[in-house]
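Retro notes
What went well: the complex prediction finally ran end to end.
Inputs used:
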Amino acid sequence: MPDSGLTPELMKEMYYTMALSRALDDRLWVLNRQGRAPTVYSSNGHEAAQVGSAFALNRGEDWIVPYYRDMALVLAWGMTPREVLLHFFAKAEDPNSGGRQMMAHWGSHRLHILSTGAVVATQDAHAAGLALASKMLKDGRVSVAYFGEGSTSQGEFHEALNFAAVHKLPVIFFNENNGYAISVPQRKQMVVQDISAHAESYGMPGISVDGNDPVKVYEVTKAAADRARRGEGPTLVEAKTYRFVPHSSDDDDRAYRTREEVQEHKQFDPVVMFEARLLADKVITEADKAEIMKKIKAVVDDATTYADKAPLPDADTLGLYVYGEDGK
Amino acid sequence: MPDSGLTPELMKEMYYTMALSRALDDRLWVLNRQGRAPTVYSSNGHEAAQVGSAFALNRGEDWIVPYYRDMALVLAWGMTPREVLLHFFAKAEDPNSGGRQMMAHWGSHRLHILSTGAVVATQDAHAAGLALASKMLKDGRVSVAYFGEGSTSQGEFHEALNFAAVHKLPVIFFNENNGYAISVPQRKQMVVQDISAHAESYGMPGISVDGNDPVKVYEVTKAAADRARRGEGPTLVEAKTYRFVPHSSDDDDRAYRTREEVQEHKQFDPVVMFEARLLADKVITEADKAEIMKKIKAVVDDATTYADKAPLPDADTLGLYVYGEDGK
Amino acid sequence: MAQMTFLEAIRETLRQELARDERVIIYGEDVGVRGGVFRVTEGLQADFGEARVIDSPLAEAAIVGTAIGAAVNGLRPIPEIQFADFIFPAINQIVQEAARMRYRSNNDFEVPIVIRAPFGGGVRGGLYHSQSVEAFFGHVPGLKVVIASTPYDAKGLLTQAIADPDPVLFLEHKGLYRSIKGEVPEERYLIPIGKADRKREGKDVSVIAYGLMANLALKAAETLAGEGISVEVIDLRSIRPFDKAAILESAKKTGKVLIVHEDNLTGGFGGEISAVISEEALFYLDAPIMRLTGPDVPAMGFSPPLEHAFMITADKIADAARNLAKF
Amino acid sequence: MAQMTFLEAIRETLRQELARDERVIIYGEDVGVRGGVFRVTEGLQADFGEARVIDSPLAEAAIVGTAIGAAVNGLRPIPEIQFADFIFPAINQIVQEAARMRYRSNNDFEVPIVIRAPFGGGVRGGLYHSQSVEAFFGHVPGLKVVIASTPYDAKGLLTQAIADPDPVLFLEHKGLYRSIKGEVPEERYLIPIGKADRKREGKDVSVIAYGLMANLALKAAETLAGEGISVEVIDLRSIRPFDKAAILESAKKTGKVLIVHEDNLTGGFGGEISAVISEEALFYLDAPIMRLTGPDVPAMGFSPPLEHAFMITADKIADAARNLAKF
Ligand SMILES: Cc1ncc(C[n+]2csc(CCOP(=O)(O)OP(=O)(O)O)c2C)c(N)n1
Ligand SMILES: Cc1ncc(C[n+]2csc(CCOP(=O)(O)OP(=O)(O)O)c2C)c(N)n1
Ligand SMILES: [Mg+2]
Ligand SMILES: [Mg+2]
C-alpha cells in the first residue's frame, strides 16, 4: 500500500470523507422527509467508489465530471458541506448553480468540477474534451467522467470512449455499477456482467474492482491516472457497488427489489467495513472515531443551519447569464 | 458446401448478380460523367459481401435495412435494374422513393427492404425493431441491418446492438468494412482492427469474414440467420472488403489514398475472383460466362433506355404523402 | 361515467388499447415493474405481461428507433420518453426517420407509433425535468403533436393517436396528472387530431392555449367574467396539425388575441399562431396580437422564486387578457 | 482588397484565426486530409498540423460534446457538422449542454465554441443534404445562430463568433459557397452578432431575409425597381439574437412586410418575426404580414421538378413583393 502512496493519514482522511458523506446524506433524507427540500439523490452505498477514486487523483486540480449520485465525490474534491446544503436548499449562494438546478447537479470552476445537467451520458464526451485540451495544452491534468451502469446504454457513452481511444486522451471513464437504473436491473439493461467488458472494443484497459473497498478503488484509479499522465490514453474502470436507498426521494424501491436483497448487500456497507478495517489495522482508534463523529455532527449541523438561513435567489435573477459579455 | 445449401445453381445466380451489379455500377458512372445524373454511390468492390449475405437469407421475405452502398444487395433482393435506374434518374416510377431521394436510398415494402435515409446508423435500431415485431408475431423472419465501419462510431449502433442483445432478437448486424469513411481511414475512426470486436460486450457472437469471398460470407450469414431463427439472438458479422472507386461521384479519393493501394486491393476483386473460381470449379464454362455477360449487357441497356424515357415526377406531387389517411 | 384524473384517463386508455389490439406494445424506461416514474403505466405489465409492457434499456434513440422498425413490421408501439427533457437523444429518429418515412418512400411505408412524454413545469423539476419541447416538433412535417388539457380529451386524443397511421408525439403536462379530474366514458371514443375545442365562448378577448395553459386560461376567464370581460378560450388540442379555422374564427370575432404557452417566447409555437392570424385576419384586429409565454431563458429554475417567476399562472393570464380587453 | 467567394472567405477566416490564436482548433468528419466535403477547410491541416485540424470519428454528438469539454478547458474549438442534416445526433449536446452550461452554472462556466454547418438546398442534395435547420436552434436561449449572406459578412461574423464567449451555430448556405464573390479585407474585423444589415433601402415593401434568401431578395428588388416598386431588404445576419429594432423600423416605414425563408412554413422562424411585428407595429401595417417559405413537406425532393418546386427563387420573391406592393 505505501507503494500506491496511500498513507495512514490519507486513509484517515478518506474515512472521514466517507463518513461525512454518509452523515450528510442521512441528514438530507431527514430534511426531505420534513418537507424542507423536494429531492434527494443519494450517494449512500457509493462512498468507497467515489472517495477511493478521488483520492487517487489531484483533487481540485484534475477535472471531474460527476454523476448526480456523486456527493461523496464532490466532498472529496473540496466542496464543503455548507455548499452541498446550499445546493440542496437551492439557495442563492449555492456554488453549483445558484439554486437553479435540482440537487445533485454538481459544478464548480474553482474546484475543477465541470457543471453537469441531468441527461445521462453527455458528461462522458465532456471529460474526453477536457482531456483533449489537456493533451494539447500539456497541463498535465487527467479528466474523469463518472457514470452509472444504466447510462452505458446511451450511445454517447460509446462515442466518448471511442473518441478518447483514437486520440489517446488522458481520461478515465469511471463507472459506478450499482446494478440498477432506477427500477431496471442490470440484466434488463445489458447482457454482460461487467461494464469493463466494453473497454476491449476500444482498445483500452478495462478493470472491474470491488467498489466497496476504497483502497482497491484507489489503487486501480491511481494506475489509470498514471497511465493517462504517461500519455498512454484512457482507461475504463468499473466499481461494483450497491445503493442502499431508493433512486431518489421520489422513488420507492420496494416495487423492484426485496428487503432481503438490500439487507444482504448491507453486509458490505463500505463505510462500516472501512471503519472496521481502520480500527483493526489501528489506523484509527475508538477515540479517533468518536472525535471524527463528533466533528462530522458539528459540520453537518453547521451546514444545515447556515444553508437554512441563507437567502433564496431573487426572482429578478431569472434572466441573468443566458449569455456572457460579447467578444472578449 | 452442399451442407450450407449452396448449390452450383445458386452459385451461378450469385455470380450473375455480382456481375450484373458491377456492370450496372459501371454504367452509372458513365451516365454520371455524361452529366445525366448528379450522384453515384457505388457498391463497386462490395459485391461479394452483399450478394453472399443476401443469398444466405430468404430474399424478399426476411427484412433488410440497407446502407447506401448496397446496390448489389438490393439487386440480390429482387430489385430490378430498371428500378435501380429509375431511382438513379429520379423518375416518378422509382419504387424506392418516387424520385424524392438521392440515389442509393433504397426501400421497397413489397421486397421487404425498409426505406432508408442518409443519417448513418439509424437503420441499426430499425432492424432491431423489425426483429422485435417478428419475435412477437412469430413470423419467422430475420432482419438484417447493413452498415459501414465508419458508422459504428455513432452511438446509435451501440444502442441497437444492446437492445437486440437484451431482447434476444432475430437480427443480424452486417458490417461492410472497407477501411474508409469517405476520406477517414479506419485507424482514425477507431483503435481496434475488427468491427466484430464489439460483439463480445453485447454478449453476442462476432465474426469477421473475408468479404471478398461470397461463399464464406454466405456461410457466416447463414449460420447467423439460423441462430436467429432458433431464437438465440443477434449476431454481428464483419465482412472485410474494399471500395475500388471514390466514396461517391462527388469525391476524389486521390486526396487520401494512393493509386498503388487501390491497385493492390484490385488483386482481390470479388467479381473477378469469384468468376475465376467458378470457371476453375467448372460451375460455369467460358460459354456460360459469355452468355451471362451478353444478358447483363442487354439488361443494363434495357434498364437505361427504359428509365431514361420514363417521366420525371410532376411538381404537383411535392405535397403528397406527408401524412396518410387518418384513423384506420 | 367514471371520474378520473388526467393520469388515470391515460392509463385506462392504454389499458383499453392493450386489451383490444394485440399489436399494441408499451415500452420505455421503468414503465414495467415500477409503472413509470409517474405511475402512468402502473399495473399494465402485471396485466399484459413482460412481452407487451417492456422495461427497455436506458437509450431514447433506441427506444424510438426500434419502435419505428416494430411499427413497420406490424406492431403498434407506444414508446414512453421518461421526461420530455430526455427526448433530444431521440430527436434524430423522430425527425429524420419516423416523420419522414412515408414521404421518403413515396407512401410505401408508414410509421404508426405514439411517443408519450410528460413535459412542463411548476412541479419543482428544475432545468431538466420541466421543459416544454413542443416547438421543436411542431415544426416537423410528417409528425403530429398532440397536447390534451382534460381527462376526457386525453382519452379521445390518445385513442385517436394510437389509431393514427402516422407518428404522433403525445405530450402530457405533468402539472395536470393529478391536479384535475373529469368524466371519462368507459367505451372507446376518438377525438380527431387537428380540431380545436372552444372550451369557453366569449366575445371580448380570445385566448389560444393548449394543455395546462388551457385550464389556467379558463380560470382566468372565470375571474374576468366577474369583471365584465368576456373571454373566449380556444384549446388547440394539437399544434401539428393545428386548427387554423377555429383560431381565425375566434380572432375575427373578438378582434383581440392572447396566445399563451409555457415554452419560452422566441421561436416558440405562439409565433406561428400569431403569424397565421396576421396573415389572414389582420384587418379584424382591434389590438396587437399578444403572447404570454415563459421567459427566454434556457430552462426553468429549481429554486421556488425562480420557478414561480417562470411559470404562467391564471393571474398572469387574467392580467394580460384584461390589458388586452382595455386596449 | 481581395475578391473572394463565400467559401474562400470562410476558409481564410479560419486560417487567420488558426494563425493568430493557438487555442483555436478545427475538427469534424473529413475536414483534414480531404479538406471537407465542400473543401472549406482545404489546406488547413497541411498548414496547421493534425493536432489542430482533426479528422474526427463519424459521431456528431461526440464532436460537439468533446468540443464543449475542450472549450471549458481552454481551447476554442470550431467543430464542423458535415451537413446541417446531420446535426440531429448532436442536438442534445447543443441544446441541453452547450447552450445551458452558463445558465445552469450561474455563470461559472462558459462554452465558447463555433459549430459550422453547411445547410440549404437547390444543389441536388435531396431529402438529407438540403435541410434548413435554423428554426430548431433559433428557439434555444443560450445559443447564437448566425447566417451570413456575403463573403464580407461571413468573415466578420465568423470572426466575431470565434471571439464570442457563447456557443454559436454558424450556418453556411451551400448555394452561396461558390456562386457569389465579394471584396473581403485581409485584416481581421468583427461584425456584431444581432445587428441586421439593411442591404437595400426602399419604401414600398420590406423584405426580411437571411443567407441565400437575402441575395435572392436583392435580385427581386432590382427587378421590381424597374417596375417602379421600391423594396427594402433587411438581412438579419443572425436569427438568435435577431435585430428587432431594424425589423420594426423597416416595417413601420413601409407598412408592408414580406418574410422569406427556405425552411418550411409552419413553426419556421418567420413566425417569430411576424409575431414581433404584429405585437409592436401592428397599426403601422398597410397589408397583412406575408411569409414566403419552403412548403410544409418533410424535406426537399431530389428530382429536379420537386427541387425546383420547393426552392425559393428571385422570381417568387418578386411575385410576392409585387402582390404586397399592390395590396
Ligand atoms: C437521457 C436520460 N434519460 C432518462 C433519464 C432519467 N433517469 C435519471 S437517472 C436514471 C437511471 C440511471 O441509472 P444508472 O446510470 O445506473 O445510475 P444510478 O442511478 O444507478 O447511479 C434515469 C433513467 C435521464 N436522466 N437521462
Ligand atoms: C450522421 C451522419 N453523419 C455524416 C454523414 C455523411 N457521410 C455519409 S457517408 C459517410 C462515411 C461513411 O463511412 P462508412 O460507414 O465506413 O461507409 P462506406 O461509405 O465506407 O461504405 C459520411 C461521413 C452521414 N450520412 N450521416
Ligand atoms: Mg445504476
Ligand atoms: Mg467504410
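What we learned: DSSP finds eleven helices and seven strands in chain A.
What to try next: split runs per interface for comparison.
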